[in-house]
Amino acid sequence: MNSLKKIMGFFWMTLAPIVIYLLVRSALQNIDSTGTKDINKPVPWIIIITIFTPIAIGLMIFGYYSLKGEYDHLPESSDDL
Questions:
Q1: Is the dihedral of CA 18, 19, 25, 26 positive or negative?
Q2: For residue 7, is it within any domain?
Q3: Cα–Cα distance between 49 and 11 in angstroms, integer?
Q4: Residue 46, in any domain of the structure
Q5: Structural domain boundaries enclosing 20
C-alpha cells in the first residue's frame, strides 16, 4: 500500500504543473478580441486560472509529502496522535 501511495504522490506532482500549463495554453489560444462567446473573453480565464492554481500547488505539496513517506503510518485512533 505504501508503494501505491508513493506512485500516486509522483503522479500528483507531475499532474499539477501539466494542468496549469494546459490551462494557460488554452487561455492564450481561446482569448480573442473579436470573439463573442464567453470562452473568448479573458475574465473567465483569469478566474479559472486563479482558482485552480492554488489547488494544483496543494496537489504538488500533497504528492511531495506522499513521495517523501509522510503518509506511510497513519493514526488509527485519536490516541495515536
A1: positive
A2: yes
A3: 21
A4: yes
A5: 2-72
Q: Which three cell numbers stand for residue 80?
A: 495515536
What pTM value is reported for the model? 0.78
Cell of 72: 506511510
Query: From residue 36, how far is each of 16, 41, 47, 49 by CA, in Å?
Result: 31, 8, 18, 21
Per-residue pLDDT of the chain (81 residues; tens, 9 = 90+): 888 989 999 999 999 999 999 999 999 888 887 777 877 888 899 999 999 999 999 999 999 999 998 888 877 888 777
45 falls within a domain: yes
- CA dist., res. 52 & res. 46, Å (int): 10
- Please state the domain count of the chain: 1
Torsion of CA 54, 60, 61, 66, to 10 degrees: 150
In a domain, residue 33? The reply is: yes
